[in-house]
Specification:
Layout (H helix, E strand, L loop, with lengths): L4 H11 L4 H22 L9 H13 L4 H21 L25 H8 L7 H16 L3 H5 L6 E2 L4 E4 L6 E4 L2 H18 L20 H14 L8 H14 L4 H8 L17 H8 L5
Antiparallel strand pairs: 1-2, 2-3
Length: 296
């Protein structure tokens, strides 16, 4: 199994856009299992691994006093690894199938402070077309709380900077969301002055945000630019696109916004927004303009 680790690492980094710290955790978990399988059972080939071996490995971690969250992450790491081997055709059965991970204790969502948000948003180099694009993307993400999948799916027609709103979500789940003046400004500057510099001359691309090849930016592409912006902003914590979504919700509610209105903006079908707070009902537009830190 050792000989597959390098290929697996490349898969996590290139195909999954995984951050360096998460990638290291996955590889460390897999290395520990490989060592366990070899030492305890003489197993060196992936097709020799059975479900029992994965369960026994999890049991050994439990006996060693590892936290449920650590054990659960190890199982997730192994599941990812064996799924990768199945995709390559190295194995035909997944030994992690139906292996239950212990439930980890819930932790509060990661939220940046408003000064950290300001540092992150101003990190891209706006002297470059890509920098203006990155600034516009980060501004819109924090202005609306939309998911990164919704952000990269935006077409030009979905964003109306002059009227200060965007339309996102697929069929049956469409949301019309207000945006603040800074997000509207950078979206307008990007579209009017810099987007065409990233497009090919004969392109008919409708995507709002495009890469240097003139095609729609991918989720992995956004992960990379977010990671760079965080480093340039001097933010030491490992952040994800969901960090901006959580920060959007937390800052609105901390400023007195109505929880239900924030849930509507987030596109929650149920009510997971209760984790952020609980306030009285008002209209979405009023909530946004009154309570979002960057509404004006």
């Amino acid at each position: 199994m050792k000989q597959t680790i390098h290929a697996y690492a490349l898969y996590l980094e290139d195909d999954k856009g995984m951050s360096s710290s998460t990638l290291e955790s996955y590889l460390r978990d897999v290395d520990k299992f490989i060592e366990f399988a070899d030492k305890e059972y003489g197993i060196r080939e992936a097709d020799q691994v059975r479900r029992t071996h994965v369960v026994l490995f999890a049991g050994q971690l439990k006996q060693a006093g590892r936290a449920n969250a650590t054990i659960a992450r190890s199982i997730v790491s192994l599941r990812s690894y064996f799924h990768f081997l199945m995709r390559r055709g190295d194995i035909i059965q997944d030994p992690t199938f139906d292996v239950e991970a212990p439930k980890a204790d819930k932790t509060p969502p990661q939220v940046l402070t408003i000064p950290e948000i300001e540092q992150l948003l101003t990190a891209p180099d706006i002297r470059l077309p890509q920098g203006v694009r990155d600034r516009a993307m980060l501004e819109l993400l924090y202005a609306t709380g939309i998911r990164v999948s919704e952000l990269i799916a935006l077409d030009i027609r979905d964003v109306q900077p002059g009227m200060r709103f965007i339309r996102c979500g697929g069929a049956g789940k469409e949301r019309i969301l207000p945006i603040g003046a800074p997000a509207a400004h950078w979206a307008s500057v990007y579209v009017e002055e810099f987007r065409n510099q990233l497009l090919k001359t004969d392109s008919d691309e409708h995507a709002l945000f495009v890469n240097v090849s003139g095609r729609r930016l991918t989720r992995q592409g956004f992960w990379k630019l977010l990671k760079k912006a965080a480093v340039d902003a001097g933010i030491s914590e490992e952040i994800t696109p969901h960090t901006l979504r959580h920060s959007f919700a937390a800052h609105l509610i901390a400023n007195g916004a109505d929880t239900r209105a924030v849930q509507d903006m987030l596109g929650h079908v149920e009510q997971p927004g209760q984790q952020y707070g609980n306030h009285g009902r008002k209209t979405m537009k009023e909530i946004y303009e009154t309570h979002h830190p960057r509404a004006r």
